Amino acid sequence: MNPLAHLLEQYPALVVDGALATELERRGCDLRDLLWSARALIETPDLIRQVHEDYFAAGADIAITASYQATIDGFIRHGLNRKESIDLLQRSVRLAREARDAFWAEPTHRGGRPRPLVAASIGPYGAFLADGSEYRGDYGLSEAQLIDFHRPRMAALLAAGPDLLACETIPCFSEARALARLLTEFPAAWAWISFSARDGAHLCHGETLAECATWLDACPQVAAVGINCTAPQYLPALIQSARTVTNKPIVVYPNSGETWQAESHCWHGVSTSAAFAAEAADWYAGGARLIGGCCRTTPDHIRAVAAWVRRLPRLNHKST
Predict the structure, then answer these.
(1) Which of 45, 198, 233, 268 gives 20 to 30 Å between its CA and that of 188?
(2) What's the rounded Cα separation, in Å, for the pair 319 and 203?
(3) With contact defined as beta carbons under 8 Å apart, do 218 and 210 qualify?
(4) For residue 164, which phi and psi values (nearest 5 degrees)?
(5) How many other C-beta atoms lie within 10 A of the C-beta of residue 256?
(6) Three-class DSSP labels, the chain
(7) pLDDT (tens digit, 9 = 90+) per residue, 106-137?
(8) Does the pTM of the predicted model rise above 0.90?
(9) What are phi and psi of 43, to 5 degrees?
């Protein structure tokens, strides 16, 4: 059963959690490594679980696991063997599930919201390369090669029992096609596919979101289509372009609104949780039904979004 469709029959919108890597850094983690946030799976797994718990407490209905930059090849490059690498991938799902189950075990947490879901993150091939190509998509690989790369990670994550996959920050159409085709090898699995965009119409690689969403609309295992790790000002136009070509739910979780300055190696600008929630209301009005945050968003951002979402009228009062 499609886990998103089931909940969206009852709730007008679902709240996705916020940033993981930048939140770990905010709490003292040193992620200056080719593994980035996946390094914390080795060194500080309890902190990952705590971040998940804090996002659930803030109102998140969906947690995205710490596997964005976690790959078997990447862990082996780090010095681990294949079994250890698979174990770490599956640890990412287990940490999120443990946090969810502990949160939901408290009856006072259940009012007016669904039992949260766990979405296992699958980042793009460029995240493994750790050379910035995840924001370009210029890999020079065929779809078949991309399928071969993603297959062992997808198999390992699904074996750990997430509710669905979050194929996220995808910069190019060819990688989205590869992931959707690979998904058919796991017929019981569901996934959303969300892209990174360079403006209000185009993916980072240059294809239009409308072109991609049109193609994905025919993929039955793709539960939602959308945008993440993108400047929030581009979302209204991107949501509109997707909404006109697909009936699938639209998922959006943009960056905070701050901008990364490569020269100074720091973030610039200001992002407030109240302003982010106000923009989220506009994304919902435009057609987004799963709303959260990416880089530099925090539990405070998600708390503000969730407070607004909880005020929307329920569609159906069946128990979840």
Answers:
(1) 45
(2) 39
(3) no
(4) -165, 175
(5) 25
(6) CCHHHHHHCCCCCEEECCCCHHHHHHCCCCCCCCCHHHHHHHHCHHHHHHHHHHHHHHCCCEEECCCCCCCHHHHHHCCCCHHHHHHHHHHHHHHHHHHHHHHHCCHHHCCCCCCCEEEEEECCHHHHHCCCHHHCCCCCCCHHHHHHHHHHHHHHHHHCCCCEEEEEEECCHHHHHHHHHHHCCCCCCCEEEEECECCCCEECCCCEHHHHHHHHCCCCCEEEEEEECCCHHHHHHHHHHHHCCCCCCEEEECCCCCEEECCCCEEECCCCHHHHHHHHHHHHHHCEEEECCCCCCCHHHHHHHHHHHCCCCCCCCCCC
(7) 999 998 899 999 999 999 999 999 888 888 99
(8) yes
(9) -95, -40
Token reading at 14: 């679902």
Fold (CATH) for 3-309: TIM Barrel (3.20.20)
Q: How far apart are CA 206 and CA 201, in angstroms?
A: 9
Domain boundaries, the chain: 3-309
Inform me whether the pLDDT recorded for 210 exceeds 70: yes
